[in-house]
C-alpha cells in the first residue's frame, strides 16, 4: 500500500494492493489505440464520418453536463456552435485590408479564429445565462429557443457572413507548421480535443465544483443551505457547455471548409438534445455514444428507407422520431445508462465521478473558533411573522447557548416550521430580531449563514439519491474548499479534495454511517438518511445545528442512536435547536423545551416541568405520557 493512503478496512472491505483503474480509465485505455489505428485502417469516407461524430460528441458533451447533470434544458447548443464556426470562417476568409488596422493580424489566423469564436460564445452565454439562469421553470429552455431562432436568422441576414449562402473557401487548417488538410489528420485533432474534454469533464464532476453542479438536481434549498452558490454552479455548467460548443464550431469550420446557417438551426439544437438523451443523460461517455448512434441511425435510415418506401417523401424524420420515442420508453437512462447498469455493481456515480479508490489520509481541515460553553449562540427577540391576516408566529423570544439542546414543540399548525424557516434564514420575520453570535441575521441568506456557522437538516430529507453517501456529505464541506473549475478539470485540486472527502468520512464515522461511505444515498433507510443529513451539516463545521423533526420516521434503535449522537455533540459544545413532534425523544434528551400553540409561546423550561405544565397538557389534548 502506498504511504499516505488509507485502506478501506474502516468500511469493512479489504485493502487493495494497488490503485484500481476507474471504468472511464479502462474505456480510455481501450479507446486510444483503436482511435490511433482507425485512420490507418478505415476508408476516408468513414474517417470523415468519424470526424463529424467527434465534433457532434464535443457539443453533446456540453449538453450532458448542462441538461443531464445540472438539469437545465438548452436548445441553443447548435447556435453556440454557429457563433464560433462563423467567427472562425470569417477570420479565415477575410483579407487583412478588410479588418481595422490593429486587428489585421487576425486575418487568416486559425488561432485568432479560435480565440474570437470562444470569447464570443462565452460572452453571449454569460449574457443569456445572466438573464435566464436566475429564473426557474421554463425560462431557460424558452430563452435558448429564442436565441437559437434569432441567431439562425441573423446568420442568414448578415451580408458580411455571406447571407443564406454562407461563407466558403475556408483554407485548410494549419497549426504550428502541421497541415490538417486531410480527413485523417483532422481525425487525430478532433478526437484528441474530444478525449481531453471528456477527461476534463470527468475530473470536473469528481470535484467540489462538480458536486455543486450535481447538487442542483437535488433542489436549491438544500445546496444553498450548505453554502453552495446555485447561480454560480448553473453558470459554470452553462459556460462549460458553451465552451465545448465553441470548440466544436471551430473544428466544424475547418472540417467542412464552408459554413452556412442551416447546420445551426433550432432543428440542429434539438438533434443535439436527442444525442444527449439517447447516449445517456448525465453519462459523460453517453455524449460519444449518442453522437455516434444518431449519426449512424440517420445515415442508415437515409440509405434504407428509399428502398423500402420509395423516394417520394422524407420518411427519415418520421422513422427517426419514432425510434427516439421507443428508445426513451425502453431505455430512459439512454444507452450509456443501460450499459452502466449492466456493469456497475453499485450505481452510485451516474456521472462517472470519484472512482472506488481508497480515500487519501488527508490533513484535517482547519476548524472555526467555537463559542465557549454557555455563550449565547442564537437569540430570537420578539419574532412575529404574519401571512396576510394570519399571525403564524407572535412575539417569540428565546436563546440557545453553546453546549445546550433546546426543543421547540407544539401541536400541528403551532408555527414551528415558520419559526424554523426564519431561524435558518429561508424566511424572514415581519418584525423582531434574530441574532447569531451577537450579530443580527434576519434578512440574510441561508447561504451566508452556512458560512457563518449555522447548519441545518430538513424535515423532508433532501439528498441526492444516486450520489454516494460520501459525496452527499462532502457537499456540506463546500465552503471549506476553494478550488475552482480550472483546478478541478486539470486535477490540481487533489490535495484539497482529499481533505474534503476525509472530512466527510470523519463525520460519517461520527454519526455511525462509516460502513456506507460508497453506498448510493438513496439506498439507505430513512433513519440513516436523517443521520446522513446530520453528518452533512456537521461537515460545514457549525457551532449551531438546526434540526427539523430529526426523529420523524425513525425506529426505536435509530432514535436511540440519534439521541446518543446529539448528546455527544452537546458535550463537545455544539448549540442544538430541534423542532420535534416525538415527545418521548424530546423529553429524555433536551435541556429546555419551548412550547408553542397558535403561533405563541405557552410554556418554556426544563422537560420535567414542561411535562406537568397544565397549559401544555391542555394543548396536546390528552396530555403527555
Ligand atoms: N407561506 C405561508 N402562507 C400562509 N400561511 C402559512 C404559510 N406558512 C405557514 N402558514 C400558516 O401558519 C400556521 C403555522 O404553520 P406551521 O407550518 O409553521 O406550523 P407547524 O407547527 O410547523 O405545523 P406542523 O407541525 O403541522 O408542521 C399555519 O396556520 C399555516 O397554515
Word description of this protein:
The chain is of the alpha/beta class and 625 residues long. Helices cover 52% and strands 12% of the residues. The protein contains 23 helices and 14 strands. The protein has helices spanning 23-41, 44-69, 77-93, 110-132, 139-157, 183-205, 208-215, 220-225, 230-256, 266-280, 286-309, 315-330, 334-343, 416-423, 446-452, 469-474, 485-489, 494-510, 526-539, 556-571, 583-587, 607-611, 614-619; strands at 167-168, 173-175, 178-180, 258-259, 376-387, 390-401, 404-409, 431-436, 439-440, 454-456, 544-548, 575-579, 592-597, 600-605. Strands 10-11-12-7-13-14 form a six-stranded mixed beta sheet, with helices on both faces. Strands 6-5-8-9 form a four-stranded antiparallel beta sheet, with helices on one face. Strands 1-4 form a two-stranded antiparallel sheet. α3 (77-93) runs parallel beside α5. It is elongated. Residues 1-17 and 347-357 have low confidence and may be disordered. It binds adenosine-5'-triphosphate. Adenosine-5'-triphosphate binds at residues 387, 390, 392, 410, 412-418. InterPro entries: AAA+_ATPase (IPR003593), ABC_AA/LPS_Transport (IPR051120), ABC_transp_permease (IPR001851), ABC_transporter-like_ATP-bd (IPR003439), ABC_transporter-like_CS (IPR017871), BCA_ABC_TP_C (IPR032823), LivM-like (IPR043428), P-loop_NTPase (IPR027417). This is ABC transporter domain-containing protein.
